[in-house]
Design brief:
By secondary structure, the chain is an alpha+beta fold. The protein has five helices and six strands, in the order H-E-E-E-H-E-E-H-H-H-E. Helices cover 38% and strands 27% of the residues.
């Protein structure tokens, strides 16, 4: 974020982090979202595990079976200064959707190209519209 305000830093450190996702029909492509409570701060989370070398890809996917912890950093893109740090566990519903889609993705030929094309079709819509149509999947820090 460029020049985050004091209020934005506070929101990132303290607000509940809600999650949602959109998944394609094959259940291999996911665009996830995080929103800081009812604030306008909504972020799209796009990840293609096939961009890593095969050995790294397997390690990264296997790692998700061992840990659902995520670190969030607010970095001022103009100065490089860290404005907030937060660590929390991933909501179970989102964690499971991502894990399964990533496992399936590695067996799909030209997955990166297909995923990029799919994401680009979604990016033709406004973030709030995507958020409103996405499936709710819990919040960071929930117990399970």
């Amino acid at each position: 974020m460029r020049g985050p305000s004091k209020e934005e830093r506070k929101i990132l450190r303290k607000a509940k982090i809600l999650t949602r996702y959109i998944i394609d029909e094959s259940k291999t492509m996911v665009m996830a979202f995080i929103r800081f409570e009812s604030s306008p701060l909504i972020y799209e989370l796009v990840f293609d595990p096939t961009r890593y070398k095969a050995i790294e890809r397997k390690d990264r996917i296997d790692w998700w079976d061992k840990s659902n912890t995520v670190s969030l950093l607010l970095i001022d893109s103009a100065t490089g200064a860290i404005g907030a740090i937060r660590v929390a566990n991933m909501p179970k519903a989102l964690w499971e959707v991502w894990r399964e889609s990533w496992r399936k993705s590695v067996s799909i030929e030209d997955y990166s190209q297909k995923y990029s094309k799919w994401i680009n079709t979604l990016w033709q819509r406004q973030t709030m519209e995507l958020w409103n149509t996405a499936t709710p999947s819990g919040m960071f820090g929930e117990r399970y």
